[in-house]
Amino acid sequence: MIAGAEMKECMPIGGELFAAQPVITTKRLLAGTESDSGGRGSGPGPVLMSNKMRYMFRIYLLLLSVVMLTAAGCSSTSTTTTRPGAAPQDSVARDASAGPDWFEKEVVAYDSLTIRAYAAAIGNDPADAEAKAVSRAATLLKQSVSGRLETVRSEGVQELGRESGLADGDFLIAFRKAHAAVDDAATVQQKSTQPVEGQSSSQGFAEVRVQRAELIKQMGSLFSSNEQTWETLIQSASFEKF
Predict the structure, then answer these.
(1) Is the pTM of the predicted complex or chain greater than 0.85?
(2) Which helix (H) or strand (E) holds 191?
(3) What does DSSP assign to residue 178?
């Protein structure tokens, strides 16, 4: 009986002791104190992280952030920065391939008065290089004029209709040869040569120019049997694009 009574008295005491155990929460990890879960009062609990440890942990996070930002900055910079040793080589290559001041690239340029063609070529010597550059410029000029003439004629047919004669076979035969008038109307405006680095050959540059009015006059002389059709074309709205 006495033993049984002692057991009954011990059970509530043991249960109350079990319920009074403190509950570990996230807040306690950071703050270090919290009231027990039973709500029986507040007071300092066991210190799970000291002030010194929290301070060191924050310093570690700060240093980690700085390292990550620095690494990201270095990565983005490496994609846009040119290696210091590459710049002089690139500049030397550009200087070696540079032409005269008036020459930028091979192109055919149109304005209201003239048509100009620029070309470059390699030759065995300066004279050969200049001759090839002039010939190439003239070829580029004729090809460009031929393309523009065909565009104008096609649009002229749409504008004026087939009754204009612009699609007739005999007119087309003469029309396909009209660009040959460039040979008589064009002149060499300027030319130049320079040695090719590391080789015995030369590079020539040339500008060939033709006056638009003179070219139209020379082309008109090729349409003796289709003069009226040619006049219809050059007076059309589509010819303004030539």
Answers:
(1) no
(2) strand 187-195
(3) G
Element (H, E) at 155: helix 126-160
Tell me the residue type at 18.
F
- pLDDT tens per residue, range 191-220: 999 999 888 899 999 999 999 999 999 999
Q: Report the distance separating Cα 187 and Cα 97, nearest Å.
A: 26
Angle formed by the axes of helices 227-234 and 212-220, nearest 10°: 150
d(C-alpha 122, C-alpha 146), whole Å: 26
Domain ranges of the chain: 19-36+43-63, 105-241
Please return the burial class of 98, using the count of CB atoms within 10 Å of its CB with bins 0-12, 13-18 and 19+: exposed
Residue 200: CB atoms within 10 Å: 8
What's phi and psi for 199, nearest 5 deg?
Answer: -135, 165
Residue-wise pLDDT for 154-166, tens only, equals 999 999 998 999 9
In contact, 48 and 28? CB cutoff 8 Å: yes
Q: Please give the radius of gyration of the chain, using alpha carbons only, rounded to the nearest integer.
A: 46
The count of C-alpha atoms lying within 13 angstroms of the C-alpha of 190, restricted to the half-sphere facing its C-beta, is 8
Structure-token pair, residue 75: 């990565």
Contact 30, 44 (CB under 8 A): no
Total Cβ atoms within 10 A of residue 229: 19
CA distance 138 to 215: 13
